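Let's practice the habit of predicting before peeking. Look at the sequence and jot down your guess about where helices and strands might fall. Then scroll down.
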Amino acid sequence: MTQGTALIIGAGSGLSASLARQLHARGHDLVLGARNTDKLADLAAETGARTVALDGSDPTAVEALFQSLNTRLSVAIYNPSARQRAPVAELDPEEVRRAIEITAFGSFLMGRAAAKMMQDQDLVDGKRGTILFTGASAGVKGFAQSAPFAMGKFAQRGLAQSMARELHPKGIHVAWINIDGGISNTARAERTDDGTDKMLDPDAIAGSYMHLIDQHRSAWSDELSLRPWVETF
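Done guessing? Here is the structure:
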């Protein structure tokens, strides 16, 4: 029996692949959205996922994606973000605008569409659905020469807080996850952990997302911080 649709926008290798595998193991119908769906071929074959090519910051594309969903939307996850690293006086305004559109406006588009769909669904085990936003420590503290990323992540975090206060009483669980550290990725040499667990393991992160999805409504989290044991904070 299907557990309903689980949607991941910004799918790729690493965390989103781990999320896809764990959601598939639970019996969800998977829909994976990304700009380049060619890179998702192996993951889609492994998990039976449907892939959709889209720009998460495009209102028309996001609306069309949600209209194409044909089973109960149980989980919606937004992963994309963008940054330009430079002194603030040297930042290109259009590149900054684009970074904020991807990180913050795209989060709004998905959150809006998911909320619209979920609020019309019946309660199952006390909830109508779960909406999760992949955040970063930049949503808590802005770092030097990283203003666009901080602007986007602060906005995303504020969106999640507002949505949680509005939607929790309607049975829709909303949470923002602060990924405070680098995520290991065997496909990237610079992201390969040396066995000391100094980087976040994507499977372990995905396990925490599953915990959020499973939380009883009497004790919902609206924010969760995840960091390696050696990460300073």
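How did you do? The mean pLDDT is 95.
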